[in-house]
Design a protein that fits this description.
Chain lengths: ~325, ~325
């Protein structure tokens, strides 16, 4: 049985706890939050025995094999090193660290300890993403990527609790990140591109700005619109788009090789094959036929996502 | 008030009552212990109305309801000037479950202050209920451990200008058509002004430390009556009545599927929630009347009219 611990008992820790408990060979042995009440609420809801407010005490007493770090990113580097020092493999929630230097240092430190450290880019391991990776590895694209496009959007309206917390608090931890809101959100979308790049230092041209919607709320510190052009040493190019305003709010990745292309639509958990030798169709039948011969709608993936975007709420008292 | 809150409204209100009261607005975050210390210095009565409404995340709701309450309580203890801590709770904390520990509500279908509260609030699948139950717990704990003089006020559904939505006790509109689930159930309404009156009294009456008070108005409409009036006065829309036996079965089915599928469907609908929201229940305001001396200032007819007017105004500006 793999003993797992979680440090940081905020919103995202719930997702980690729920998924860990689905793995039969794992047991969450302890959780830790410097706010003891937060640790207690997670323990109570997930029936976890070890409840701590001090990390060192938890690592010593619970002796986990793996630690999930779900604290704000400012503490990721130091906490991860502490866990590695106690012989634990570490899963770090995104964003991995505050900067490249910390990331490199952490990876090297884990290697010296013969331990594993990973970033929480779980979107990369959803059904559609795995199928896409499998097809690319089998040579479906016909070559390495010629061009990629990644859309990763986030609806930043006044109704979202995240937006209310961020916009209402000038001291919010997201604002204190070097890359602000973008630093906290875009890594899922960037990871899609990074997977297929051949260099760690691609050429990057980026343009970011606060959206007019945000400006109208008196907010001019937060950049919530970003357009990026990326080029690697093998001349593969990529566009990355982050937007809080465009609709639909896409989470989509498109990759094109010399033979074929693939579109991964995360919201619909769908992977579409785009054949390079696509046959021409008449314009009036375009909408009906243009994708149907090449579309591989994975019904089994769709059903899993059927209700994921739907919320069921009651008017509370 | 919270950072980013609309201070203009509060300042305007403070000006209105400025002739008889000295009002100081403190801006801060209840998650900050320093801000709590600043806000509670020299204070004798605290009306703790802040809550995490609309949160879907359990940790967020908990943090914004329970951690904040704990910070306030600690600040009060530090200053030592507190005479009364009035905390706002909710009817949703009652289990109202025939299989619950006491089964009290099942016997006469009367929900009063002696009915058991939810012992396992997480099973409700509702972050708000979880947070409110835990908030009550921590206030009670501070009362017992440290002698903090507290009173818990549990309003039914507070309606009026500022809360124009239709309570989930009447039905839900999440599925394309409005499902009318309340039927002939009485809806525990309390008009915002009437509720405010009870809250004020809870801070001022002597000899009620450690008590809880349910607040509902005198003449409570049934769900069916309310829906008919709403359609007549605000807007007409299609609704589908779902009998109680069917809604209970659907909640049971949803609960089972959610569990079996390991959360593919969120556990929003379940039997515990059905008991709290849609089980036929009667309500009483006897205790709030006898112990607090509360009377309903705005009649239910007048309150409903004001509410419908507000709904129409909101719809016109939407």
């Amino acid at each position: 049985m793999l003993k797992v611990a979680i440090i940081g008992c905020g919103k995202i820790a719930d997702s980690h706890a729920a998924q860990i408990q689905r793995v039969k060979a794992c047991e969450i042995v302890a959780v830790c939050d410097r706010e003891e009440l937060m640790a207690r609420q997670l323990c109570e809801r997930f029936q976890i025995k070890g409840c701590f407010s001090d990390v060192k005490t938890m690592l010593t007493e619970a002796q986990p094999n793996v630690v999930h770090i779900t604290t704000p990113p400012q503490s990721h580097h130091s906490l991860a090193k502490l866990c590695l020092d106690h012989g634990c493999h570490v899963y770090v929630e995104k964003p991995f660290t505050l900067n490249t230097m910390e990331a490199v240092d952490l990876i090297e430190y884990a290697e010296t300890k013969w331990l594993k450290v990973t970033a929480g880019h779980d979107d990369q391991f959803r059904h559609g993403a795995r199928k896409m990776r499998e097809l690319a590895a089998k040579g479906y694209l016909g070559s390495g990527p010629v061009h990629m496009e990644s859309y990763y959007c986030y609806e930043l309206g006044q109704t979202s609790s995240y937006a209310r917390a961020l916009l209402g608090d000038k001291e919010h931890w997201v604002r204190r990140l070097p890359g602000g809101l973008l630093h906290n959100i875009i890594s899922h979308g960037i990871a899609r591109i990074a997977e297929f790049l051949t260099t760690d230092s691609p050429e990057v041209i980026a343009y970011g700005f606060p959206s007019p919607a945000l400006r109208s709320m008196g907010e001019d510190e937060i950049i919530d619109e970003l357009r990026v052009i990326i080029s690697d040493s093998e001349a593969a190019t990529a566009y990355f788009t982050f937007s809080s305003q465009m609709r639909p709010s896409l989470h989509q990745f498109r990759i094109f090789g010399q033979s074929n292309g693939l579109i991964l639509d995360q919201d619909n958990e769908t992977l579409i094959k785009l054949r390079g030798s696509r046959r021409k169709v008449s314009s009036n039948s375009l909408s009906a036929l243009s994708t149907s011969p090449n579309n591989t709608p994975p019904i089994r993936f769709k059903t899993s996502a059927l209700f994921s975007a739907t919320t069921f709420t009651l008017n509370q008292e | 008030m919270r950072p980013g809150g609309d201070s203009a409204k509060l300042a305007k209100y403070a000006d209105q009552i400025g002739g008889t009261a000295r009002v100081e607005i403190v801006r801060g975050n209840l998650l900050s212990r320093d801000d709590c210390l600043r806000a509670t210095q020299g204070v004798a009565v605290i009306y703790h109305l802040a809550a995490a409404r609309g949160e879907k995340s359990f940790p967020d709701a908990f943090m914004n309801s329970v951690v904040t309450t704990r910070n306030l309580l600690d600040a009060c203890r530090h200053h030592g000037s507190l005479k009364r801590f009035v905390t706002l709770s909710s009817f949703s904390v009652y289990s109202n479950d025939r299989n619950g520990s006491a089964g009290r509500a099942a016997t006469g279908d009367l929900l009063d202050e002696s009915c058991p509260v939810e012992t396992n609030p997480a099973r409700r699948g509702d972050a708000y209920t979880f947070a409110k139950t835990k908030q009550d717990e921590i206030v009670t704990e501070y009362g017992k451990k440290f002698g903090v003089p507290y009173v818990i006020v549990r309003p039914g559904f507070v309606y009026g200008p500022g809360n124009e939505g239709i309570t989930g006790r009447v039905g839900v509109g999440s599925f394309g058509i409005f499902l009318h689930l309340g039927g002939s159930n009485t809806i525990p309404f309390t008009y915002v002004d009437n509720c405010a009156e009870a809250i004020i009294l809870a801070g001022l009456r002597k000899g009620i430390d450690g008590e809880a008070f349910n607040v509902v108005d005198d003449e409570l409409p049934s769900s069916r009556e309310f829906l008919r009036l709403y359609k007549q006065n605000v807007r007409n829309f299609h609704s589908l009545y779902v009998p109680h036996s069917i809604s209970y079965f659907l909640c049971w089915l949803w609960e089972k599927y959610s569990h079996w599928s390991e959360g593919q469907l969120p556990p929003t609908f379940n039997r515990s929630m059905w008991c709290s929201y849609w089980k036929k229940t009667r309500y009483t305001n006897a205790k709030v009347k006898t112990r607090l001396g509360w009377t309903q200032k705005v009649s239910s007819a007048e309150a409903l009219q004001r509410y419908f007017d507000s709904c129409r105004r909101k719809a016109a500006h939407a």
